[in-house]
Write a structure and sequence with these properties.
Elements lengths: L7 H6 L2 H21 L5 H10 L4 H11 L2 H13 L12 H37 L4 E6 L2 E7 H26 L1 E2 L13 H11 L2 E2 L10 H27 L7 E2 L19 H22 L10 H29 L2 E2 L1 H9 L7 H10 L4 H18 L3 H6 L2 H4 L4 H7 L9 H9 L3
Parallel strand pairs: 3-4
Antiparallel strand pairs: 1-2, 5-6
Helix pairs in contact: 2-3, 2-6, 2-8, 4-5, 6-7, 6-11, 7-9, 7-18, 9-10, 9-11, 10-11, 13-14
């Protein structure tokens, strides 16, 4: 199922070929470490470097007999290398290789995901500045509240994704580690310097203390950072889906020539991309729960985590990579509809001015609750009669006794709501 969401670069990372290649990189780094420490001689090391390789089909064939993937892998490599292969995997246990290789694979996937974040941030920034000053209705509880701008909406999502990127970078560094500490992590059959040298060659940090495995709180950190980002994706997609509703229609997804929206209703243009990403975001979050469940292993290790990670490592990274790029594409082709924003602003008859009138009355010396009742009375009349709220206010003798016509004219200026827009943009983007 996940195959349909695999972009080529990300899909390549999780192929069997690349997985076994990462294992071989770890084994070779360990051999190089032993060589530097004088345990593996120059001639043997030269042969290992030249001949160490594998054939995926051969590994799978051997695994049918051994029922152990790492032993099958080592056997296939030994067939290529010959006698010096006895020095491969010296002092190591399977998890030394698999966990360290997972650090390499997750780092590769993480770097691609960071590129997806960068593209999305750039797209949001472009959309925010393109719609800066574009007045639209702000809503709370789905009900008209006060005006905002479409640029501010997009700036808010940009700020959120900056936080998601920071969290993901931390999560990525949590798993960018290796361990070559042997069975139960005591280095009994190893020299700790082997671990330090091998991890340096591989570009990984050394896990300060491991058991037979790297502790899975690191992986939970990685996957929960993806889950939070998926929550941000869904929040943005829910906003876009709402804005495309027929009754709102302030923005809509691009609709390609020849595209069809419904098998039954030819008129339909549905927010299918946003809906699809909403669903995939839920799946990414679900996988993070599995990652957290993996933290509690028996004693120094069991393998209950292994089967889970064979699913969630490729699936979550593939899905997040796909979702980030698809969302960027959606936003790049988003149709923003200013005339409908204006229509919707007019649709609440200027009721969004109510707080301005309330505060003006308070500033005039009136008690807040007395002023509230007075303004609410005009607001309810406006809503029930479908007449403009400013007209109701200007016709209210109690209010006009406090506020002069010139003051009211100033209160009913929609531009007032964006007077701090530049400041907010400066905070978010460093420029306005």
């Amino acid at each position: 199922m996940i195959d349909r969401y695999s972009r080529p670069e990300m899909a390549r990372i999780w192929t069997l070929e690349n997985r076994f290649r990462a294992w071989l990189d770890v084994e070779l780094a360990v051999c190089e470490a032993w060589h530097r420490l004088g345990v593996i001689g120059a001639d043997d090391m030269r042969i290992i470097r030249e001949k160490a390789d594998f054939d995926v089909d051969r590994i799978l064939e051997i695994e049918q007999e051994t029922r152990h993937d790492v032993i099958a892998f080592l056997t296939a490599v030994e067939e290529k290398v010959g006698p010096p292969a006895r020095l491969i995997h010296l002092g190591c246990t399977s998890s030394d290789i698999v966990d360290t290789a997972n650090g390499l694979l997750l780092a590769q996937a993480g770097e691609l995901i960071l590129k997806g974040f960068e593209r999305l941030l750039s797209t949001l920034e472009t959309l925010a500045f393109a719609n800066k000053g574009r007045l639209c209705m702000g809503r709370t509880h789905g009900i008209h509240a006060e005006p905002t701008s479409f640029g501010l909406k997009m700036a808010g999502f940009h700020a959120e994704f900056q936080r998601h990127v920071a969290r993901f970078r931390d999560g990525l560094e949590s798993v960018r580690v290796g361990k070559i500490s042997g069975a139960v992590g005591t280095y009994a059959m190893l020299d700790p310097r082997v671990e330090a040298i091998a991890c340096e060659i591989l570009g990984l940090a050394v896990d300060p203390i491991s058991t037979q495995v790297i502790q899975r709180d690191r992986h939970a950190h990685f996957f929960t950072s993806l889950a939070l980002a998926a929550g941000g994706v869904e929040r943005l997609c829910v906003e876009l889906r709402h804005l495309q509703r027929t009754e709102v229609l302030e923005a809509e997804e691009g609709f390609a020539k020849g595209q069809k929206g419904s098998s039954a209703m030819p008129h339909k243009k549905n927010p299918i991309s946003a809906e699809n990403m909403t669903g995939l975001s839920r799946l990414i979050r679900t996988n993070s729960l599995a990652a957290m469940e993996n933290m509690a292993l028996w004693h120094e290790r069991d393998i209950s985590h292994s089967s889970v990670e064979r699913v969630i490592m490729p699936d979550s990274t593939i899905l997040m990579d796909y979702v980030l790029h698809r969302l960027s594409g959606l936003l790049s082709n988003l149709r923003v509809i200013p005339e409908n924003m204006d229509r919707n602003l007019a649709g609440s008859y200027g009721l969004y001015y109510s707080q301005r009138v309330l505060l003006a009355l308070v500033e005039s010396g009136m008690a807040r609750q007395e002023a509230y009742v007075m303004v609410q009375r005009c607001a309810m009349q406006s809503w029930e009669t479908r007449k403009p709220f400013p007209d109701m206010v200007r016709a209210d003798a109690d209010i006009t006794a406090r506020l002069a016509p010139s003051v009211l004219d100033e209160l009913f200026d929609p531009g007032y709501y964006l007077r701090h827009e530049n400041m907010i943009f400066q905070r978010v983007f460093g420029r306005s």
